[in-house]
Every structure is written in structure tokens, then in C-alpha cells.
Predict the structure of Enoyl-CoA hydratase/isomerase family protein.
Amino acid sequence: MADPTASRPEAGELADAGLRLDVDGPVATVTLNRPERRNAMTFAMWRGLARIGESLPEPVRVVVVRGAGPSFSAGIDLSMFERGGAEGGDSFAGAAGDDPADAERRIAELQAGYTWLRRPEIVSIAAVQGHAIGGGFQLALACDLRVIADDARFCMKEAALGLVPDLTGTKPLVDIVGLPRAIELCLTARTVHADEAARLGLAELVVPAAELDGAVRDLAAALLAVHPGAAVATKRLLRQAPHNTLEQQAAAERREQVGRLKELFGSGGAA
Ligand code: ACO
């Protein structure tokens, strides 16, 4: 759940972080908005994403994550590796620090920019055109669904830079493509084009680039057409299915259905 006490970030604060948020009733659109840098990501951007997640207004049921310009995101802003760092002063200088626990706490703050996209209260859709590299690929993986343009290209580049993917991408990648393919993709840092991405299950839909926005709008409309409470309960069920035994999952289905029946028919409702 979003934190009801969290204040909505100002548009200016988000713009400084290279982000834009548009809320239109039940649909929120988060735009990575540094097209001149191919939406390269800074610490400020990741913290801004976390702020959006914390303060998402309650009526929002669908979140679209998109990138302005030709690429979804070129991943981490490489200037953060240089002396002086990226715009806004973000830099890796001293990022590891002396205290590993402190460094891990800082990474957890950045991961919070991704984890909220899995909440049962929303369905998140990544609309991917062009490159989705490293942290950009992981942001697409953090979403429930991926609608991609036929020019989309995914690359988990971290290993080539001496890093590991640490923005919550390793689990969904393994869940979607399986362990051997995930090892192959991460440890070669090779690029996966749209047709292969669809074959691997990394995209629910591939469309011509000019049709990406329309396809995402249609999907959002279809998601909004089902019962809101049933959507939340069903996503909660589906999310736990891979970790449950059949018995545990059947029990979870019973619990959720009793909640549904109560809401639909009052406390006397029964199947
Ligand atoms: N960090 C900082 N600046 C970037 C990044 C980045 N990750 N990616 C692109 N830019 C900048 C370029 O330097 C260029 O700046 P300039 O106009 O001042 O020269 C501008 O964005 C446009 O980039 P081009 O390379 O000209 O755009 P093109 O569309 O031809 O290529 C591509 C896009 C493929 C994404 C290419 O820019 C690229 O390979 N970028 C680096 C990707 C990368 O290695 N990311 C790290 C991933 S690992 C991780 O996220 C942990």
C-alpha cells in the first residue's frame, strides 16, 4: 500500500530527478524524462521513483512506466563513475563507504524505486521502445507486464561494468526466462531484440513503434474493465503461486474468495 501520510512529490522535484508523473483518474504514467541522455538513471531518479510509489494516490489502479525519446532507458548514468559525477552531483565516489551495512541500506533505498511496482493494488506496465539497458532493463522487469515496440532491445550490462544487477531484476529475470537463460543473458551482457524478447516471455505484446502508446492505452482500459477488488485479490494470489505448494495455494484461493463473497454479497454470502 502507498503511505497515506506521504506527500506527493512536486513536479519540479521530479523534473530535477529526470521524471514526470501524470495522473489521470485510475491511470498514473511515470515518464523517465531525460531523452537527451537516453533516460540514463541517477540516484536522484531512483529516489524519485520511490517517492512516486510512496505517495501514489489511492484511485490509481494502473501504472504505466515509459521513457521519453528513442530509448526506454540506457541504464545507469555512466557519468556517475567519473570524478564530479552526474548532473545533480550523484556519484559512485565513496559509494561503498567503510560500513557495508550502511552501503546496503543506501542500495535498499534505491531498490525501493522498483519494488512498489509489484504491489497488488496496481498493475504496472512497462512501455518499452529502443534500448532498455541495465537498470532500465531491471525497471521493465519490475513491472507486471511489458508491452514493447518492435525496435526494443534489452541488455543486462552490469557484469560488463564489474557490477551485479542490484535493482531487483535478477528474480523476475530468472522467474521469466529460467536460470540457464538468465545466466547466459547476464554473463554475456548480450542484447536481446524484440522478437527474441517475446519468445523468452519478456514481453506480453510486441507492436510497431508508432503503435506503442495506443497498445498500452488499450491494455490499461482492459485492465480497468474488471472488478477492482477482484483484480487486487487475484494479483495477490498469482504473485504467491510460484512459492506455494498446491495445498497452500488452494488455501489462499479459499481465503481470497471468502473475502470476495463477503464484499459482493455481505457476510451471509456463500458460493
Ligand atoms: N549514461 C550517461 N549518458 C548516456 C548514457 C548513459 N548510460 N547513455 C547515453 N548517454 C548519452 C550519450 O553520452 C549521448 O550524449 P551526447 O549527446 O552528449 O554525446 C546521448 O546520451 C545520446 O546517446 P547516443 O549514444 O548518441 O544515443 P544512441 O541512440 O546512438 O545510443 C545507447 C543509445 C545504445 C543507449 C548508447 O547511448 C549506449 O550504449 N549507452 C550506454 C549504455 C550503458 O552502458 N549503460 C549502463 C548499463 S549498466 C547499469 O545500468 C547498472
